[in-house]
Amino acid sequence: MKAQRLGWAPYALLLPSFAFLAIFFAAPMVQAFGLAFQDENNSWTLESWRTMFSDAGFRDALTTTLLLIVLIIPVQFTLALAMALVVNARLKFSGLWLYVYAIPLGISDLAAGLVWLAIFDRQGWLNSFLEGLGIIDRQIIFLNYQEKGWLVFTIVLAEAWRATSIIMIILVAGLQGIPRDFFEAADVFGASFWQKVRRVILPMLRPSLQVALILRTILAFQAFAVVVALAGSGTAVLASEAYRWYYTLRDSHVAAAYSALILILSVLSTILFLVLLPTREEQMG
After folding, report:
1. How many other C-beta atoms can be found within 10 angstroms of the C-beta atom of residue 101?
2. In the predicted model, is pLDDT for residue 171 greater than 50?
3. Predicted local distance difference test score (pLDDT) of residue 283
4. Separation CA 178–CA 201 (nearest Å)
């Protein structure tokens, strides 16, 4: 009865949000997607996609992007789950730990990249610290563009520091939604900590894990500022290639093709997680 009395009020309240998303997100996204299938004369063609696939930097950018996703997501989810368990344990100063963990959320992507650049640069903090301790007698070049492994390692480290808090907050919300009765029952049956994690926490966290996986994967496909700050042109990802084609090579159609590819991969990864990690409601449906 209450829902009937509300009438159109809920839809009116949602209208500004829908209008904002339609004007500033949906419309540009559709326009960019269409641009990827047009040439300079606005004729429909696949030439931009052929140019993208034959581009010398395409394969390297795609490989690096997928490699970052494969490395970043397991590291971040392991750290985020550990952080969420500490916060949810309601130990002394657990509230303080929540604020400490959330500090990187207030830092932009580029600023995070510059922070880690200041650490790993040849004259940065890490070299100065090791020299001060007498461990090394000359500076180490951590960001060597000929050593892609080191560059990928620093990017993974910077991304893990910057974005793990996002996953942690989602998992904390999920943990707080688990009834305490489940943990008390596990204690009664003598379950160990790891048994609680496997039998109680992870199954009940499935909806939160699904949301966090989808969100983090989409953001990983869009990784750009941290990569540019740490690796410059030494390591390419899909987003940086889209930037290069738009601002350096002045070809908005190929840049749009790169952007459309990122969108397609994001949608496919979302579908994959929905299929591989269904919630209880989805299983019942």
Report:
1. 20
2. yes
3. 52
4. 8
Torsion from C-alpha of 228, 234, 236, 239, nearest 10 degrees? 20
CATH code, domain carrying 203:
1.10.3720.10
Dihedral of alpha carbons 272, 275, 276, 277, sign: positive
* Tens digits of residue pLDDT in 110-130: 898 999 999 998 888 888 888
Q: Greatest CA span in the chain, whole angstroms?
A: 77
Residues in a beta bridge with 135:
none
Q: Taking a C-beta distance cutoff of 8 angstroms, is the pair 35, 43 a contact?
A: no
Total tally of structural domains belonging to the chain: 1
> Does residue 251 fall inside a structural domain?
no
List, as one string, the DSSP characters of 79-144. HHHHHHHHHHTT-TTHHHHHHHHHGGGGS-HHHHHHHHHHHHSTTSHHHHHHHHHTS-SS---SS-
